[in-house]
Structure to design on (385 residues):
């Protein structure tokens, strides 16, 4: 005789940043939670660079040992002239994404969530307000789809799907002698990263060198590494990894939710159309979606598709800027405009948002760092954690 399905309040599809943040919060709110993922573990097969903007760090407490703090952006024109950008009190955190996801998985399990590895989502039927899953003997009252930009949940249930993507490619290196670790190094160059940027990022245990291109364009990693070789010295470094990925850039999908099913993270298109950044939205809306699902299932709160609608990101300005970036202006124009006050203001706004209105000089900023380092004997020159 077949055993009845194991009942859960909430099934989360995808042990992603969004899915694991939702799992921890939902379990802490009293829901019985299952997370289904086809991978052997949360930190396997990760393709993101792992840059957290300050808002993400403020939204979700992350162990100091899993991050490196980077305070500035060095922005390069196609002719390799650069400008250094800072804003008072602002920073980025770089991480090792696999380790961070493993930690989030541990946190979710500690809160009481059940993580079912090597368990892909292959479908679910609904009867009497309960979903019964194909291929795994569980049932649930609500489903959260956090299974990435090519969401199987969205496809199976006929929800909105991402249609526009940035194509990204990246190499990881064990060390780069020429990389100033105070900065995220970002490059404008329409010949190698048409419609987007290239980057070199000091991570927790590796340096990430990559780039992305607008929909319908191709990024050229070899050309970027060759062009920036005099700055970073890739030839003297050991390549330790290589990833490719597709980043949704079309904004929020529609519909992103129906009764009983909610999409979050990349599955819902919650990534900036301009930058492609999505970890902030994944952590924030993972947490928020779990709160409203718990409120709905346990305390007669409004359905998630109603409760979340008023706080969803709209990306109005990001869509405008994405349309401009898609034009991939010629490098001669980018280099000519690079030093103008308008371009510097726009760059500060893009990287620091409202905090970017009062940029500070490199000399002023280094003086501030020296003052901080005198109070913290653990700080090391050139590396800020």
């Amino acid at each position: 005789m077949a055993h009845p399905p194991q009942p859960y309040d909430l099934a989360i599809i995808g042990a992603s940043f969004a899915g694991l943040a939702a799992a921890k919060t939902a379990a802490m709110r009293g829901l019985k939670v299952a997370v289904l993922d086809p991978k052997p573990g949360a930190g396997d097969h990760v393709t993101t660079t792992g840059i957290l903007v300050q808002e993400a760090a403020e939204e979700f407490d992350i162990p100091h040992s899993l991050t490196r703090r980077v305070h500035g952006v060095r922005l390069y024109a196609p002719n390799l002239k650069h400008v250094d950008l800072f804003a008072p009190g602002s920073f980025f955190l770089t991480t090792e994404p696999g380790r961070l996801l493993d930690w989030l998985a541990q946190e979710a399990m500690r809160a009481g969530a059940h993580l079912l590895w090597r368990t892909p989502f292959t479908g679910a039927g609904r009867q009497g307000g309960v979903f019964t899953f194909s291929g795994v003997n569980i049932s649930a009252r609500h489903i959260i789809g956090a299974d990435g930009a090519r969401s199987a949940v969205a496809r199976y249930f006929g929800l909105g799907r991402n249609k526009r993507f940035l194509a990204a490619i990246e190499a990881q290196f064990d060390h780069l002698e020429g990389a100033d670790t105070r900065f995220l190094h970002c490059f404008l160059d329409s010949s190698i990263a048409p419609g987007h940027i290239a980057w070199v990022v000091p991570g927790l245990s590796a340096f990430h060198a990559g780039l992305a291109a607008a929909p319908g364009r191709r990024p050229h990693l070899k050309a970027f590494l060759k062009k920036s070789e005099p700055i970073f010295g890739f030839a003297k470094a050991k390549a330790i990894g290589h990833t490719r990925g597709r980043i949704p850039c079309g904004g929020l999908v529609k519909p992103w939710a129906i009764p009983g099913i909610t999409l979050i993270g990349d599955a819902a298109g919650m990534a900036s159309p301009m930058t492609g950044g999505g970890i902030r939205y994944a952590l924030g809306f993972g947490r928020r979606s779990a709160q409203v699902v718990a409120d709905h299932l346990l305390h007669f709160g409004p359905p998630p598709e109603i409760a979340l609608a008023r706080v969803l990101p709209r990306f109005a300005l990001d869509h405008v800027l994405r349309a401009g970036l898609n034009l991939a202006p010629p490098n001669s124009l980018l280099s000519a405009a690079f030093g103008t006050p308008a371009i510097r203001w726009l760059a500060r706004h893009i990287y620091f948002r409202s905090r970017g209105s009062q940029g500070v000089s490199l000399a002023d900023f280094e003086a501030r760092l020296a003052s901080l380092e005198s109070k913290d004997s653990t700080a090391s020159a050139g590396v800020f954690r």
